[in-house]
């Protein structure tokens, strides 16, 4: 296994290209199970998680071919309805094959994804929505077994204790596209990734009204067709992470291919911190002079501040001049990175769902352990800003969500390389 070594303290400069969104690509890939016709995806991000989804689609009877940033998915032989533990357990995104399998094959056996270091992560909302459409659900030996002779439209409230659910909305919406009659999802997730999935489904022939809003009205159709060319939206979390890297290192960089409007919650909070992010000539430009003011943020479902940027923002605030409070209302336990950031000289303590950050003048390089994808990104930010050498262990987490991270950073003037453990 490799570790990532960062020789920190160097400002970044230049332009970085943002790839396709992981969290849009995963449900869109699952949606291709709704048709037997070929689907071609563009701006496809080559990541550990999307490669896992390719394996899962193949195991379900699809043939998948990848060239450059293009993915072609076609049907091959008989479809299989069993999503195995070894593929679903490594990545929660796999669970969104449940809705499409039920809609297309009227049966599905999908491994429960289980919890992970960012929290317990139940699937009750997925099951509630799919049951409302007429699925009989049983849990047996760690698998969800669903059968549905006919799916029928229903009026469903999908809000939970932590707000809307991204993948539950995806699962129920995908199933509803082929259900008989009208489905209304109230408290649907409004994340751009769900909007992208809705646009993809519409391009396949689905009838969806209210795209991007918390009330989706889906009128079931008999059949969905393939798509010749669908371009996946840019990854707002990858973009936000590069913006925060520039902010933490006092750098001026530009992002190519990112979507400014998807990043407004981050941009607004950075403005208060003294970091300017502007849109100019199809680029997103970041200007930071390292004099950071403390800003307290709370994560919420979109359009609130994203939980997937909480760890990275916390790393930035560890260098602000004063105290900030970071609260995660989506995943209250997503704070594994605090201990590792403190190893690098940060001064952060956890109180319940809050991280209380007392900014320090500088961070210093240290050996640290990546615990999950976004926590790893926070350690990269800290490593780039720190003086000296940082070694990040277990970097396979990073490969789940950041394409060519080392190459992109080195092209921006950082010194980042891999070493064998
Ligand atoms: N929740 C429930 N019941 C459910 C489903 C969710 O209580 O049935 C709770 C969760 O425990 C959490 C909240 O609802 O407290 C929101 O979770 P959500 O279902 O929206 O998360 P998800 O759909 O499983 C996606 C992303 C995550 C991202 C969250 C929140 C994908 C593949 N994953 O997960 O991305 O953090 O939405 O925005 O789209 C990442 O990319 O690093 C990542 C973890």
Describe this structure in words.
The protein has 421 residues and is α/β, with parallel strands linked by helices. It has two domains: 2-19 and 234-420, Enolpyruvate transferase domain (UDP-n-acetylglucosamine1-carboxyvinyl-transferase, Chain); 22-231, Alpha-beta prism (UDP-n-acetylglucosamine1-carboxyvinyl-transferase, Chain). Helix content is 31%, strand content 27%. The strands form six sheets. It has a four-stranded mixed β-sheet, with helices on one face. A four-stranded mixed β-sheet has the order 2-15-17-16. A four-stranded mixed β-sheet has the order 4-5-3-14. Strand 4 and strand 5 form a beta hairpin. It is globular and about 65 Å long. The protein starts with a strand and ends with a strand. 52% of the residues are buried. It binds uridine-diphosphate-2(N-acetylglucosaminyl) butyric acid (EPU).
Class based on secondary structure composition and strand pairing: alpha/beta
- DSSP E strands, number: 24
Extract low-pLDDT stretches. Answer: none
* Count of domains: 2
Q: Name the CATH architecture of the largest domain.
A: Alpha-beta prism
Tally the helices.
14
Distance between the termini: 6 Å
């Amino acid at each position: 296994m490799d570790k990532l070594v960062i020789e920190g303290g160097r400002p970044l400069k230049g332009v970085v290209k943002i790839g396709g969104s992981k969290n849009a690509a995963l449900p869109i890939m699952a949606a291709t199970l709704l048709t037997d016709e070929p689907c071609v995806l563009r701006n496809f991000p080559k990541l550990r998680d999307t490669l896992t989804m390719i394996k899962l689609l193949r195991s379900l009877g699809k043939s998948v071919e990848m060239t450059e940033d293009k993915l072609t998915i076609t049907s091959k032989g008989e479809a299989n309805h069993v999503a195995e533990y070894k593929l679903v357990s490594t990545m929660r995104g796999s669970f969104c094959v449940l809705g499409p399998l039920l809609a297309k094959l009227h049966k599905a056996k999908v491994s429960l994804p289980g919890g992970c270091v960012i929290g317990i992560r139940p699937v009750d909302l997925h099951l509630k929505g799919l049951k409302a459409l007429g699925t009989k659900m049983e849990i047996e030996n760690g698998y969800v077994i669903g059968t549905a002779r006919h799916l029928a439209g229903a009026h469903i409230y999908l809000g939970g204790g932590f707000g809307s659910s991204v993948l539950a909305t995806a699962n129920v919406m995908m199933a509803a596209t082929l259900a008989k009659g009208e489905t209304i999802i109230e408290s649907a997730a409004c994340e751009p990734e769900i909007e992208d999935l809705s646009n993809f489904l519409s391009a396949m022939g689905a009838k969806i009204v209210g795209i991007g809003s918390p009330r989706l009205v889906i009128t079931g159709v008999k059949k969905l067709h393939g798509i010749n060319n669908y371009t996946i939206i840019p990854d707002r979390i990858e973009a936000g992470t590069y913006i925060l890297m520039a902010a933490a290192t006092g750098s001026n960089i530009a992002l190519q291919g990112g979507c400014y409007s998807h990043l407004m919650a981050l941009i607004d909070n950075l403005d208060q911190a003294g970091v300017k992010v502007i849109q100019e000539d199809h680029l997103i430009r970041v200007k930071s002079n390292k004099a950071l003011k403390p800003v307290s943020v709370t994560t919420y479902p979109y359009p609130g501040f994203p939980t997937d940027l909480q760890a990275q923002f916390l790393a930035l605030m560890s260098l602000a001049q004063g105290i900030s409070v970071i609260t995660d209302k989506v995943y209250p336990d997503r704070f594994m990175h605090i201990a590792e950031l403190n190893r690098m000289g940060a001064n952060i303590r956890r109180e319940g769902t809050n991280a209380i950050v007392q900014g320090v003048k500088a961070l210093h390089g240290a050996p640290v352990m990546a615990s999950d994808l976004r926590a790893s990104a926070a350690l990269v930010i800290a490593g780039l800003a720190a003086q000296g050498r940082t070694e990040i262990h277990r970097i396979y987490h990073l490969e789940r969500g950041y394409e060519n991270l080392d190459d992109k950073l080195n092209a921006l003037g950082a010194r980042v390389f891999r070493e064998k453990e």
